[in-house]
Amino acid sequence: MSGAEKKVDDLAWIPKASAIAREAGARLREFQAQGVETEYKGEVDLVTVADRTAEKLVCERLAEAFPEHGVYGEEGTRVRLDGEYRWYVDPLDGTTNFAHGIPHFCVSLGLELRPTGLNPEEDGTLVAGVVYDPMRDELFAAERGKGAWLNGKPMRVSRTPELAESLVATGFPSRKRHLSPNVHFYQEFTLRSHGVRRAGSAALDLAYVASGRMEGFWEFKLNPWDTAAGTLLVEEAGGRVTDFSGGPFRLDSREVLASNGFIHEELLGLFSDMFAGRSLTPIPTPQEFAAHRAARSAG
Ligand code: IPD
Ligand code: CA
Ligand code: CA
Fold it and tell me: Is 51 touching ligand 1 by the criterion CB < 6 Å?
């Protein structure tokens, strides 16, 4: 075993959290192979028996491994929230992919240290994170101040210096979709980069920034279980995470902008310009395009 791999075993929370994420991921793989029924939580917000079963399994295992720790899970688990430590659990990030048989989803576990006396609305410090992709058997892990690893090997963000050479990612909310301005950002980032991926798992998007596969990720209105683990992965891999104005990222801020650090100021500049109504590159409207298309076929 190399020195770096050995170090992973020396970590405080990652070995147990990794085993839990792997076990839950294996259950998701089985469900995926069997096929599952889908229910609707909201208009297009899906949930399956796999989400609920995986959350129950993760919570039972966390209680065995870390009996003092609290848990805040997407499918409703709220236990020991006055504790010093709190796990944010997304038992299945990428449910829409999962429900359609697309093999791109993960288990995400992020651990927050909340010192005694902290106000309920204040963030503590994220200290550990694990994101496990069961279909590729990829385990991304980090602990605060100790580094970040992909399958036990140290991982770093990319060194790409500008957006024009970058691949970036985003996602769209499944609730109140008509209130989201994100398609404008999608368009502008598409025109200025190698492209924008909308792959359907925010936790894996963040893990891909951390591992250097992509340079940046942003999304509006995510929840703490989507971002707790992935944002720590990015920071520990050498990247930067803020809100859309460059302020500190907060778990409930509903804004996350993560990058390799090198392109961060450029991304913030673009957000600031776009929020001020500048920097929108004109593209043809469907009507203008149709007129052009009709003229072409007539000529
Ligand atoms: C969703 C995914 C998706 C993001 C959505 C999230 P879920 O989580 O992370 O990429 O765009 O905003 O809600 O519902 O699959 O756990
Ligand atoms: Ca999620
Ligand atoms: Ca989920």
Answer: no
Q: What is the CA radius of gyration of the chain?
A: 20
- Reduced to 3 states (helix: H, G, I; strand: E, B; else coil), residue 164 is helix
DSSP output for 230-268: HHHHHHHTT-EEE-TTSSBP-TTSSEEEEE-STTHHHHH
- Given its phi and psi angles, is residue 94 left (phi above 0), alpha (psi -120 to 50 degrees) or beta? left
Which residue's C-alpha comes closest to atom 11 of ligand 1?
171
For residue 145, give both structure tokens.
Answer: 């101040």
In sequence order, which residues have a C-beta less than 8 Å from that of residue 200 and are 6 or more positions away?
A: 94, 96, 97, 102, 104, 105, 171
For CA atoms 73, 77, 79, 81, the dihedral sign is positive
Pocket lining: 226 vs ligand 1, CB cutoff 6 Å: yes
List per-residue pLDDT tens for the chain, 299 residues long.
344 444 555 679 999 999 999 999 999 999 999 888 777 777 666 678 899 999 999 999 999 999 999 999 999 999 999 999 999 999 999 999 999 999 999 999 999 999 988 998 899 999 999 999 999 999 999 999 999 999 999 999 999 999 999 999 999 988 888 888 899 999 999 999 999 999 999 999 999 999 999 999 999 999 999 999 999 999 999 999 999 999 999 999 899 999 999 999 999 999 999 999 997 899 999 999 999 999 999 97
Say how far apart CA 36 and CA 50 lie, in whole Å.
7
**Prediction pTM value:** 0.94
Report which residue type is found at 105: F
Residue 182, ligand 1, Cβ within 6 A: no
Instruction: Name residues whose C-beta falls within 8 Å of residue 103's C-beta, 6 or more positions apart in sequence.
Output: 32, 97, 135, 136
Task: Report H helices in 147-198.
Answer: 182-192
